[in-house]
Design a protein that fits this description.
This protein is α+β, with helices and mostly antiparallel strands and 321 residues long. It contains ten helices and 18 strands. Bound molecules: zinc ion (ZN).
């Protein structure tokens, strides 16, 4: 148990460390000389969904040591799966958030870890003050961490929607030193992000499947966290399901959905959910958008041999779209 908690501590710190790295001042600073000549990658991708516009926004990427993080698979098999996708450990992993512009409301799904999201949002033509609602898939630091900067609300107007089960679990005063098998850093970061929102009277919790806004419903997906939720967004008969952290390491977990990750609060529930949902998505052709699939993280999951693979949506870049 001691070893496990040390590993969890290291991994929980990873996303927090990312936020700290991203927060370094200045565009050049400690950047390597080669990168200094160019602006940062522009992390914006637009997708038309009926009358709505979905914009994928990159919060940046982080290298994840999958040997340390993944469970139920050997390091050799991880390397084999990564090599099959022409990748290697540590796996460069996207942190994606999504803006849904319904025409009347601007709705942000997740807020990243406090990395490059605001640069991406600005590049997409929006200011933080224009965001009306924020839908959190769950309370982890790489999803809720962008809510607050230096204790102040980054999106001052926004109502923040999240499942009550995650608020109950992560903000419980009795959990702030951690629970068996789950390190305190998860709880500390959730409280730092959601506490100021709650204090400002901007936190709106829901239970189960709920109509959050016109065209947007929550879909309970517990396992990764107790209140982990998908959001189904529909317009003019088109739908997209925002699946949060159903998958982190696509090169390994798509071929073998039984592989779990240290971030999962309930390993067996998270595994069963992924196994069932991949099958359902592949059968139904449901379009999905995920926080950690390679940016922009929008596409379809299809059968591939005994497992699955991911097909990104078309890149469309012409007038009239
Ligand atoms: Zn998570």
């Amino acid at each position: 148990m001691r070893t496990r908690s040390l590993v969890l501590k290291a991994t929980a710190g990873l996303f927090l460390a990312t936020a700290i790295t991203f927060a370094l001042p200045g565009p050049v600073g400690a950047e390597p000389a080669m990168a200094a000549a160019h602006p940062a990658q522009i992390g914006v991708f637009r997708y038309r969904l009926g009358d709505f516009e979905v914009t994928a926004l990159s919060d940046g990427t982080v290298p994840l040591d999958l040997h340390e993080l993944l469970k139920g698979v050997s390091p050799a098999d991880i390397d084999k799966a990564l090599a099959g996708s022409f990748r290697r450990n540590p796996a460069e992993t996207s942190i994606n958030a999504f803006l849904v512009d319904t025409g009347s409301r601007r709705v942000l799904i997740d807020t990243g870890a406090g990395g490059r999201l605001l640069d991406s949002l600005k590049a997409a033509g929006y200011e933080p003050s224009q965001i009306d609602d924020i839908l959190l898939t769950h309370a982890h630091g790489d999803h809720a961490g962008g809510l607050v900067h230096d204790g102040a609300l980054v999106f001052p107007k926004a109502t923040v929607h999240i499942a009550k089960a995650d608020v109950d679990f992560f903000l419980d005063p009795a959990h702030q030193n951690g629970v068996p098998g789950y390190d305190k850093s998860y709880f500390v970061s959730a409280t730092a992000s959601l506490g100021p929102v709650k204090a400002a009277g901007k936190l709106d919790t829901f239970t189960g499947a709920d109509q959050i806004l016109p065209g947007i419903v929550s879909v309970p997906a517990p396992g990764h966290t107790p209140g982990h939720s998908f959001y189904r967004v529909e317009s003019k008969g088109q739908s997209m399901l925002f699946i949060g952290d159903l998958v982190h390491a696509e090169a390994v977990q798509l071929p073998n959905p039984k592989v779990t990750i240290a971030f999962d609060v309930d390993q067996s529930k998270a595994q069963a959910k992924r196994v069932a949902d991949f099958k359902q998505f592949a059968t139904s052709g449901q379009a999905v958008a995920a926080a950690h699939l390679p940016f922009p993280g929008i596409g379809h999951i299809r059968r591939q041999g005994a497992g699955y693979d991911f097909v990104p949506v078309d890149f469309v870049n012409r007038d009239g779209q």
